[in-house]
Amino acid sequence: MLLAPDPAPETTAVPVKDVDLPGATYAPDVSLASVARAATLGVQVYPSVASADFAITGDLDDMHLTVSLAFTPSPENQRIKDEISTELIPGLEIILGASFARTTLDYAVAEPTLTSTPVVVA
Prior knowledge:
Elements: E1 13-14, E2 30-31, H1 32-43, E3 49-57, E4 63-71, H2 77-96, E5 100-109
Parallel strand pairs: 4-5
Antiparallel strand pairs: 1-2, 3-4
Helix pairs in contact: 1-2
């Protein structure tokens, strides 16, 4: 996962503590906004993700993750949801060195836009 080089203005940078996970490496003073932005950009690579927004608030003792995704109809949507729950969120916790106290997942399916077809009268 790539982190943006500069934290966004007025973001919280938290010192990362060692949670003794074998083989895990932590980046000190990780910006919560940078981690959230990287997660957002990472999920947007899927063609069926119409929009995505990850937000991390709080501090290491009480972090809250909010995930808002809008999908276009696709059979891969459930797989993406599962991947977020089983891989992406635990990965974010490893990067931050702390678990989320609360996680809010908001998923929606955007209806495809109907395009009008010009009617030609002969």
